[in-house]
Structures are given as C-alpha cells and as structure tokens.
Amino acid sequence: MTLWAMPIAATGPDLPPPIDPAGYRAVDPALASLGQLLFYDPILSGNRNISCATCHHPTFASGDGVSLSLGEGGTGLGPDRVASTDNRPEERLPRHAPALFNLGHRDFSVLFHDGRIEVDPDRPSGLRTPMGTEMEEGFASLLSAQTMFPVLSPDEMAGHYSENEISQAVRIGVITGAGGAWDLLTDRLEAIPEYRAGFDEAFGPGDIRFTQVSDAVAAFMELEWRADDSPFDRYLRGDAPLDMAVMAGMDLFYGEAGCATCHSGPFQTDHDFHATGLVQFGPGKRARFQDHREDRGRYGVTGDAADLFAFRTPSLRNVAETAPYGHTGAYADLRGFLAAHAAPRAAWGAYDPAMTMTPLLEEDTFTPLTDPDARDAILSRTPYADRTFSAAEMSALVAFLESLTDTQSVAGRLGIPAEVPSGLPIDR
User: Fold this and answer.
1) Residues 313 and 273 sit within 8 Å (Cβ to Cβ)
2) What is the Cα–Cα distance from 381 to 158, expressed in whole angstroms?
3) Of the CATH numbers 1.10.760.10, 3.10.180.10, 1.20.970.10, 1.20.1250.20, which one belongs to the domain with range 25-63+98-226?
4) The pLDDT of residue 133
5) Domain 231-407 is of which CATH architecture?
6) What confidence tens digit (pLDDT) does each residue in 293-324 have?
7) By the 8 A CB rule, do 148 and 214 touch?
8) Which of 142, 200, 338, 374 has its CA 20 to 30 A from that of 190?
9) CB atoms closer than 10 angstroms to residue 391
C-alpha cells in the first residue's frame, strides 16, 4: 500500500474543513437508551407490526437494502420483505429509505428527499413542517420532528383506514389532543411499566407526551449513527495519511469531475436541491387523487417551477455501505450509479428494472421509464452534459468514496436490544 504523506495543513482551498464536533448535541445516555427501545419496538405502529428499524436497520447501514420499501402490508426484513398474504399493502412507498448518519449535527437543517421539514428561525417553533403549527411545538430538534412522520403515514407505520385506532385517527385528521393519534400511541406506552419508568428517568414524572417519544428516538439516532471518524476524517484532522488511490479519487472528486459542486462541505452535501435527471420508477410521489407516476421532488413542497424534479443532495458518509442509490434506489451498484449520475440521458436509454433491489408486486408499474413525455420533462431540468468516466477514474472515485466509511457508525453503538418492553418481536 502506498500512502500519501500528510501535509502540514490537511485542508486546502478545494477541501472541506474537518467536521466540527461542537455541531453535535450532547446526548443523554438514559434518553438514548430509551430511544433505542422505542426505535426497535413495533408498538409505535398502528398494527403493532412495524418499527422504525424495519426500514432503518443496522444490517443495511441504517437503511433497508431495497429500492422502494414495503411498509404496512409487508412482512420480513430488507430484500426478503414481501407482501403479506392476508393484508396486502395498498401502495409501495415512493422513495428510497435514506440512511440516518449524522442527522443530529446542526449542519443538517433540512430533512427528507424533498426538504419538507427544515429549521426556520422565523417561526415560533423554530421549525417548518407541513403538519401545521400545533404539531411543530415541543420537539427538541429537527430530527425529533422528523420522527413523527412515519408513525402517521398509512403506508409506512400507521396502517390503513379501519385497521386500528391509530389509522382511524390519522384518516380523520385528529393528531393532537385527547383521542388523537399521538395520544393513543402514548397511552400504549403508559400502560407498560418499563416504559413508564424509562420516561420518568429521562424526563421526570408526568404524562408521556409524544414529543418526548420523538426526542428519545432522535437521541438514539444521534448517538447510534454519528459518523465522523472515517479515513478521510482522520486525514483532514491531520491524524493519518491516505492511500494514493484514495488521493487520486479525492483530487478528481474535488477537482475535474466537479462532484463537490453539490457534494461540498464536511458531510459532502450542500444541503440544497438539484435536478440530476435520475431514472424515475415506481408509484411516484403524488396525492391520492392524482394519477401521474412522476416524483416532482422539491416542487411538491414549494410549488416553484424552478424546483421541478429537484432533490436534496444526500450526504456521502458511509455511501459505500448504503446501496441502493438515488431517491428511488434505482441502482444497486455504486459504480453503476456513478455512471448514470454522470450521464443521465444515456442512462435512461440503458436502464433495466432488473437493476433495482426491489421484490416486485404484480401491480408494480414503471410507467415513467417508458413514457417519453415524463422522461423528457425530467431530463430537461438537468443542467449538465453527459460525461463518461474511464475505468481508472471510476476506480479512483470509488476508492475515495470508500474512504468516507466510518466502521463504528455502520456497526452502531448500542445495537439491537435483546427485547423490547412491549414483548413484541424485533426485526433482526
């Protein structure tokens, strides 16, 4: 192995500074331990059959290892998850389950592929979400607010209308207050002595509030998936050299390839939104009354035509471990994704649904793949020309991306609990 000698200053005009450790909130161990149990406990789902870990599992580097997830109506874990025979899903989830690394750092001020929740200091809560002001108050962080969305989604965790009391409350829009979805979920926890004691320890005596549930889950995620000790991090801090192959990829990434135009900063993201022309397939992101199968990305949040088909730039931390790639998980292989990302127009013509990591349902459709109007609309937003990487360039880029792997964060710190207080089965 040939190592590149460490310079006196690890950063230069084209490299980011090291991650600022002060950007991470201090995590209370008791709160994180409580959050660990809640994260793996299916009790937070309407039908008591899905946990946060079903789609964000350490086995799959805090994702689920498939292109488009099956939430409610599925059974099994990761690529082995299939539709239940007695309660089939109403619809596949339209976007790839993102990894959870570093989401507690203050730099992450906007979340979800379309950025529908973000820090907003001009609002009383300090946050902006599509749920309304009464459901923005009381969360300790943006990440805490994010955790409320899956439990309220019929296709993710809540279940479908008439299946349970949670889904019924969600269906009629009763979320807060007596008899609301949050109240019903915390009633379940109040009835379990171990949870009651855990909330007393973490928050003090008093009725359990759903924002406390969210705060605990967020604290666990912040501790479990903090990723700031990769080989690249150690290089930037001046602690260790890098292999010359990695350095070659780093020079390409921050230089001629232009990757850092969007994948900038300490986490390799500008936290902004860009239309890159990636292949779209699956049900698309739309309202129930709409029949298109496009995912219009950030436009669905802002209504601004300039945001059509734009998605949040993902962080690249642990990217070598988080296949598949893209907002639909269209590519199972990192090299294949890099090639498609660099040349999206060519990629549409060459795309084969077999490249996905998604068990198919008989009702699955990939209409946008064959609809020229949808394809042309998406590609028309892509600002750059197609380019091709040589084999040497591709190998160098992959080597650099592999240097962003923090092995401790991939493995997790607290791990999967032996059991959860509800006694329900855990996804392992």
Assistant:
1) yes
2) 35
3) 1.10.760.10
4) 79
5) Orthogonal Bundle (1.10)
6) 789 999 999 999 999 999 999 999 999 999 99
7) yes
8) 142
9) 8
